[in-house]
Amino acid sequence: MTDVAVCAVPIRWIVVLAVWLILAGVAAPLNAQNGDVSILVSPNALTFNYVIGGALPSTQPLSITSENPTVSHNFTLSSPDNWVTFNPSGSTPQTVDVGVNVTGLNAGTYTSTLVISAFARNTPIDVPTVLNVSPAPPPLPTINVNPAALTFNYVIGAPQLPGTQSVAVTASTALAFTASPTQSWITSNPPNGTRPATLTVGVNP
Prior knowledge:
It is a single chain. By secondary structure, the protein is mainly beta. It has one helix at residues 11-36; strands at residues 39-42, 46-51, 60-66, 74-78, 84-85, 89-91, 94-100, 108-118, 125-134, 143-146, 165-171, 176-178, 186-189, 192-194, 197-203. It starts with 10 loop residues before the first helix and ends with a strand.
Protein backbone atom coordinates (compact mmCIF):
# COMPACT_ATOMS: atom_id res chain seq x y z
CA MET A 1 0.00 0.00 0.00
CA THR A 2 1.32 3.37 -1.02
CA ASP A 3 1.32 6.24 1.43
CA VAL A 4 0.21 9.62 0.06
CA ALA A 5 1.53 12.73 1.89
CA VAL A 6 -0.89 15.60 2.09
CA CYS A 7 0.47 19.06 2.96
CA ALA A 8 -1.85 21.46 4.62
CA VAL A 9 -1.49 25.07 3.46
CA PRO A 10 -2.71 27.69 5.91
CA ILE A 11 -5.73 29.59 4.68
CA ARG A 12 -4.02 32.97 5.21
CA TRP A 13 -1.29 32.13 2.68
CA ILE A 14 -3.87 31.14 0.11
CA VAL A 15 -5.59 34.48 0.58
CA VAL A 16 -2.31 36.41 0.28
CA LEU A 17 -1.38 34.52 -2.90
CA ALA A 18 -4.78 35.17 -4.43
CA VAL A 19 -4.59 38.89 -3.71
CA TRP A 20 -1.10 39.09 -5.18
CA LEU A 21 -2.19 37.32 -8.35
CA ILE A 22 -5.15 39.68 -8.72
CA LEU A 23 -2.98 42.79 -8.30
CA ALA A 24 -0.37 41.47 -10.69
CA GLY A 25 -3.05 40.70 -13.26
CA VAL A 26 -4.43 44.24 -12.99
CA ALA A 27 -1.09 46.06 -13.01
CA ALA A 28 0.30 44.24 -16.03
CA PRO A 29 -2.55 45.19 -18.37
CA LEU A 30 -2.41 48.80 -17.15
CA ASN A 31 1.29 49.07 -17.87
CA ALA A 32 0.84 47.39 -21.22
CA GLN A 33 -2.02 49.73 -22.01
CA ASN A 34 0.09 52.84 -21.31
CA GLY A 35 2.88 51.54 -23.47
CA ASP A 36 0.49 50.83 -26.34
CA VAL A 37 -0.99 54.34 -26.37
CA SER A 38 0.63 57.27 -28.20
CA ILE A 39 1.22 60.77 -26.87
CA LEU A 40 -0.04 63.69 -28.92
CA VAL A 41 1.94 66.94 -29.06
CA SER A 42 0.78 70.26 -30.52
CA PRO A 43 2.33 72.23 -32.12
CA ASN A 44 5.01 69.96 -33.54
CA ALA A 45 7.57 72.80 -33.87
CA LEU A 46 8.29 76.12 -32.13
CA THR A 47 9.81 79.34 -33.46
CA PHE A 48 10.79 82.41 -31.44
CA ASN A 49 11.94 85.82 -32.73
CA TYR A 50 13.96 88.33 -30.72
CA VAL A 51 15.54 91.70 -31.51
CA ILE A 52 18.56 92.49 -29.33
CA GLY A 53 17.61 95.15 -26.82
CA GLY A 54 13.89 94.60 -27.37
CA ALA A 55 11.21 92.79 -25.37
CA LEU A 56 11.65 89.08 -24.71
CA PRO A 57 9.51 86.76 -26.84
CA SER A 58 6.37 85.52 -25.09
CA THR A 59 6.26 81.89 -23.96
CA GLN A 60 4.43 79.49 -26.27
CA PRO A 61 2.02 76.76 -25.11
CA LEU A 62 2.86 73.15 -25.92
CA SER A 63 -0.08 70.78 -25.48
CA ILE A 64 0.80 67.22 -24.41
CA THR A 65 -2.09 64.74 -24.32
CA SER A 66 -2.77 61.03 -24.69
CA GLU A 67 -4.61 59.68 -27.73
CA ASN A 68 -6.74 57.77 -25.20
CA PRO A 69 -8.28 60.26 -22.75
CA THR A 70 -8.65 57.54 -20.12
CA VAL A 71 -4.88 56.96 -20.01
CA SER A 72 -2.53 59.38 -18.26
CA HIS A 73 1.17 59.38 -19.07
CA ASN A 74 3.88 60.81 -16.86
CA PHE A 75 6.43 62.58 -19.03
CA THR A 76 9.72 64.48 -18.79
CA LEU A 77 11.08 67.26 -21.00
CA SER A 78 14.70 67.89 -21.87
CA SER A 79 16.77 69.92 -24.31
CA PRO A 80 20.46 69.92 -25.18
CA ASP A 81 20.52 73.75 -25.10
CA ASN A 82 20.00 75.90 -22.01
CA TRP A 83 18.40 78.77 -23.94
CA VAL A 84 15.19 76.72 -24.17
CA THR A 85 13.17 77.06 -20.94
CA PHE A 86 10.31 74.82 -19.73
CA ASN A 87 8.88 72.88 -16.79
CA PRO A 88 10.84 69.61 -16.89
CA SER A 89 8.04 67.15 -16.00
CA GLY A 90 4.30 66.62 -15.88
CA SER A 91 1.47 64.26 -16.76
CA THR A 92 -1.06 64.19 -19.57
CA PRO A 93 -3.16 66.09 -20.33
CA GLN A 94 -1.06 69.20 -19.72
CA THR A 95 -0.01 72.42 -21.44
CA VAL A 96 3.63 73.35 -20.94
CA ASP A 97 4.84 76.94 -21.39
CA VAL A 98 8.03 76.93 -23.46
CA GLY A 99 10.21 80.05 -23.53
CA VAL A 100 13.72 81.21 -24.35
CA ASN A 101 16.60 82.72 -22.40
CA VAL A 102 18.45 85.18 -24.65
CA THR A 103 21.17 86.14 -22.17
CA GLY A 104 24.55 86.26 -23.90
CA LEU A 105 23.24 85.35 -27.35
CA ASN A 106 24.52 87.17 -30.41
CA ALA A 107 22.56 87.84 -33.58
CA GLY A 108 21.91 84.67 -35.55
CA THR A 109 19.64 81.65 -35.86
CA TYR A 110 19.73 79.04 -33.09
CA THR A 111 18.22 75.57 -33.50
CA SER A 112 17.50 73.06 -30.77
CA THR A 113 15.17 70.20 -29.89
CA LEU A 114 12.68 69.78 -27.07
CA VAL A 115 12.56 66.07 -26.22
CA ILE A 116 9.44 64.54 -24.64
CA SER A 117 10.03 61.18 -22.95
CA ALA A 118 7.37 58.87 -21.49
CA PHE A 119 6.27 55.23 -21.35
CA ALA A 120 4.26 55.45 -24.55
CA ARG A 121 4.20 53.88 -27.99
CA ASN A 122 5.72 56.83 -29.89
CA THR A 123 8.22 58.34 -27.44
CA PRO A 124 10.64 59.98 -27.34
CA ILE A 125 9.15 62.83 -29.37
CA ASP A 126 11.37 65.60 -30.74
CA VAL A 127 9.92 69.11 -31.10
CA PRO A 128 12.23 71.28 -33.27
CA THR A 129 12.77 74.69 -31.66
CA VAL A 130 14.19 77.70 -33.48
CA LEU A 131 15.26 81.08 -32.10
CA ASN A 132 15.94 83.93 -34.53
CA VAL A 133 18.00 86.72 -32.94
CA SER A 134 18.16 89.96 -34.93
CA PRO A 135 20.73 92.71 -34.30
CA ALA A 136 19.68 95.83 -32.46
CA PRO A 137 18.33 98.56 -34.76
CA PRO A 138 20.53 101.64 -35.28
CA PRO A 139 19.90 104.48 -32.83
CA LEU A 140 17.41 107.13 -33.85
CA PRO A 141 19.01 110.33 -35.17
CA THR A 142 19.12 113.37 -32.91
CA ILE A 143 18.12 116.86 -34.02
CA ASN A 144 19.50 120.08 -32.57
CA VAL A 145 18.40 123.69 -32.80
CA ASN A 146 20.45 126.77 -31.95
CA PRO A 147 19.42 128.88 -30.17
CA ALA A 148 17.06 126.72 -28.15
CA ALA A 149 14.80 129.67 -27.19
CA LEU A 150 13.79 132.97 -28.75
CA THR A 151 12.64 136.26 -27.16
CA PHE A 152 10.90 139.10 -29.01
CA ASN A 153 10.00 142.51 -27.59
CA TYR A 154 7.15 144.63 -28.94
CA VAL A 155 5.44 147.81 -27.78
CA ILE A 156 1.72 147.93 -28.52
CA GLY A 157 1.00 150.55 -31.17
CA ALA A 158 4.57 150.65 -32.43
CA PRO A 159 4.72 150.87 -36.23
CA GLN A 160 7.60 148.42 -36.49
CA LEU A 161 7.34 144.69 -35.71
CA PRO A 162 10.24 143.00 -33.97
CA GLY A 163 12.88 141.81 -36.39
CA THR A 164 13.06 138.15 -37.39
CA GLN A 165 15.58 135.79 -35.80
CA SER A 166 17.46 132.86 -37.25
CA VAL A 167 17.47 129.30 -35.86
CA ALA A 168 20.09 126.80 -37.09
CA VAL A 169 18.82 123.22 -37.50
CA THR A 170 21.35 120.37 -37.44
CA ALA A 171 21.09 116.61 -36.95
CA SER A 172 23.34 113.59 -36.40
CA THR A 173 22.38 112.19 -39.81
CA ALA A 174 20.41 113.14 -42.89
CA LEU A 175 17.01 114.08 -41.58
CA ALA A 176 13.95 115.81 -42.98
CA PHE A 177 12.00 118.02 -40.59
CA THR A 178 8.93 120.23 -40.37
CA ALA A 179 8.61 123.45 -38.36
CA SER A 180 5.11 124.06 -37.03
CA PRO A 181 4.45 127.11 -34.78
CA THR A 182 2.21 126.32 -31.84
CA GLN A 183 0.75 129.85 -31.79
CA SER A 184 -0.84 131.74 -34.66
CA TRP A 185 1.27 134.89 -34.00
CA ILE A 186 4.54 133.00 -34.62
CA THR A 187 5.84 132.80 -38.17
CA SER A 188 8.44 130.33 -39.43
CA ASN A 189 10.03 129.96 -42.81
CA PRO A 190 10.59 127.54 -44.45
CA PRO A 191 7.88 125.25 -43.00
CA ASN A 192 10.02 122.15 -43.69
CA GLY A 193 13.47 121.18 -44.90
CA THR A 194 16.47 118.87 -44.56
CA ARG A 195 19.32 119.40 -42.19
CA PRO A 196 21.42 121.48 -42.10
CA ALA A 197 19.03 124.36 -42.51
CA THR A 198 18.25 127.80 -41.13
CA LEU A 199 14.78 128.84 -40.03
CA THR A 200 13.65 132.46 -40.07
CA VAL A 201 11.31 133.03 -37.13
CA GLY A 202 9.26 136.12 -36.52
CA VAL A 203 6.18 137.35 -34.65
CA ASN A 204 3.02 139.14 -35.73
CA PRO A 205 1.27 140.25 -32.56
